[in-house]
Amino acid sequence: MVMKIIISISAHLLYKMIFLTALSLFWIMISASRGGQWGAWMPSSISAFEGTCVSIPCRFSFPDELRPAVVHGVWYFNSPYPKNYPPVVFKSRTQVVHESFQGRSRLLGDLGLRNCTLLLSNLSPELGGKYYFRGDLGGYNQYTFSEHSVLDIINTPNIVVPPEVMAGTEVEVSCMVPDNCPELRPELSWLGHEGLGEPTVLGRLREEEGTWVQVSLLHFVPTRETNGHRLGCQASFPNTTLQFEGYASLDIKYPPVIVEINSTVEAIEGSHVSLFCGADSNPPPLLTWMRDGTVLREAVAESLSLEVEEVTPAEDGVYLCLAENTYGQDNRTVELSVMYAPWKPTVNGTVVAVEGETVSILCSTQSNPDPILTIFKEKQILATVIYESELQLELPAVTPEDDGEYWCVAENQYGQRATAFNLSVEFAPVILLESHCAAARDTVQCLCVVKANPEPSVAFELPLRNVTVNETEREFVYSERSGLLLTSILTLRGQAQAPPRVICTSHNLYGTKSLELPFQGAHRLMWAKIGPVGAVVAFAILIAIVCYITQTRRKKNVTESPSFSGGDNPPVVFSSDFRISGAPEKYESERHLGSERRLLGLRGEPTELDLSYSHSDLGKRPTKDSYTLTEELAEYAEIRVK
To answer: What is the 3-state secondary structure (H, E, C) of 63-118?
Structure first.
């Protein structure tokens, strides 16, 4: 800022000053227009490189009524008041100065022309400070001006960068150095500008307060890669060794770019997972981890980690890293794949089907990686798929053999799970061939085995009535179900004779089936009807007849053959070569009582056969099947001869 002093001067003095200097003429014209008062003008601040010089421009004025013959002046350092004994920089009256300024200061201006310009040479840091001028017109006409100039001794050029530099937008960077030393002129050059652009030197410019600067400009388009780049400017003075350098780091603003993030992450269920995201931006970005629109973690930082403790399948999915600042945003995703054993397979419920229908069974599970799915029935593989989460079993026409329990097994390298399910096939009753009747003594027992689903009703049909329940103590029906088999047993007690036929009839909602039950062991039934006493009597009569026939034949043979003679012990001939009808063959050796045996006396004479007693030995034998009564007996007659 230019400080103006108002003075009044005569016309002839004004013309004289025009011839001296154009600058002085301009200052005097302004000062005259404002009238004569004590006043001074000098730059409020001025700078110069260490080791060079500086010219502090100065103008002053005083009242018009004062017409001194000689004008003197004094420059003080850091204080305007003489009573404080400030260091004298320059004194026109005595030339006595402070030791710090000896040989360094001289007056460039003409005090008579109100020009108090000061030149300081061989600058050093201790010369930096405030400089005050005091006018001395003689006597009491002395005045110390409050206006002063602050000298700044510098060592580096000033690099001016715009307050905001954005990547992709052209920018102008300037290097400015003071040029206030009339003896030394600086020259400027750029350092580290390779790849940025070519510099332009504008030359010497005058500032508002009358100081001078040397300026060089550099134009370029910055990128994110040039952020933080160190750009320098060098000021050198020809014919000297003086050289000064200054640097500035470029602060390039640009939107975020995510430069580092996990690739697809695979983790085993229950393990620890760390997701990392790093972004490059200026200013630093706001980093956010998100999943399905939910913010999981965020922070203003160049990198951000998301920690997952004991990861579960529920945390499997895609995670988003979002980076944003004032200048833009960027985002990247990472997939977290949680590896785990198959879940318990699910089946479309217990299946009920009618014989002949098509059945479709779907088994599904969830695992990572996808499992091997297999459907078993009684350890037989019916269907299997590899690396699929679903398996469908098709049974085109189900039969009763398809009824039963099935297993769906899912497995991968992390484990195995299985689920059981049932297929229930419904069909009309089928009476199995093992159904029959058996009798022992006065009891008849009938077995009817039926295969059906759902459970059928079973009835036994006798000649005069049907029996389905325990009607009396003589008739009893018992049923027991095991799986698809229903076993019904009819027990008839006190039967004098077996019924001519027994029919088993089974019925459910899919049909009716009947079968006449066969009797097993009819010969046993006959002996059961006769009873043990009757059997003994019949057997004794049969033995007597055989003995009679044998005796008759023996007598005839004796008569015809004279070689035989009588004695005390006549020979006896007995043949029991007969078989009781229906007796088991395994006792055949017991039924032949002395077969082909001849009893001969010493004399060879025939002797009559006497029956001393008859005895019936009733021996029990096990039955061939489980449905025959244990009371069924095999009876034999034993004949002893004396």
So the answer is: CCCCCCCCCEEEEEECCCCHHHCCCEEEECCCCCCCHHHCCCEEECCCHHHCECCE
Q: How far apart are CA 138 and CA 87, in angstroms?
A: 21
CA gyration radius, the chain: 69
| Non-local CB neighbours of 273 within 8 Å, separated by 6+ positions | 265, 267, 307, 308, 311, 315, 336
Give 499's pLDDT tier (boundaries 50, 70, 90).
Answer: confident
Q: Are 127 and 100 in contact (CB under 8 A)?
A: yes
Residue 316 vs residues 245, 305, 358, 367: alpha-carbon distances, Å: 58, 17, 38, 11
Measured between alpha carbons, how far is 406 from 427 in angstroms, rounded to an integer?
19
Measured CA distances, 317 to 152, 228, 330, 338, 365 (Å): 64, 38, 20, 8, 18
Q: pLDDT, tens digit, for every residue of 539-558?
A: 677 777 777 777 776 655 44
* DSSP three-state, residue 633: coil
Return the structure tokens found at 614.
């008859």
Tokens of 472: 């009396």
Residue 192 is classified by DSSP as S
Which pLDDT score is estimated for 203?
Answer: 76
Residue 471 pLDDT exceeds 80: no
The residue to which tokens 């985002």 are assigned: 331
d(CA 391, CA 408): 9
User: Averaged over 392-406, what is the pLDDT?
Assistant: 92
Round to whole Å and give the CA distance between 237 and 92: 31
How far is residue 10 CA from its own chain's centroid? 98
Q: For the chain, what is the mean pLDDT?
A: 79
Structure tokens at 64: 């018009």
Distances (CA, A) of 100 to 77, 83, 93: 10, 20, 19
Q: How, if at all, do strands 165-166 and 252-261 pair?
A: parallel
Please give the backbone phi and psi of residue 542, each rounded to the nearest 5 degrees, phi first: -65, -40
H or E element: which one contains 560? helix 522-560
Return the higher-pLDDT residue of 94 and 294.
294
296/569 Cα distance (integer angstroms): 125
Separation between Cα atoms, residue 140 and residue 580, nearest integer Å: 181
Is the per-residue pLDDT at 509 higher than 90?
Answer: yes
Angle at 300 between CA 329 and CA 323, to 5 degrees: 20
Question: Does pLDDT of 284 surpass 80?
Answer: yes
Q: Are 570 and 601 in contact (CB under 8 A)?
A: yes
Measured CA to CA, the distance from residue 351 to residue 332 in angstroms comes to 48
Structure confidence at residue 191 (pLDDT):
92
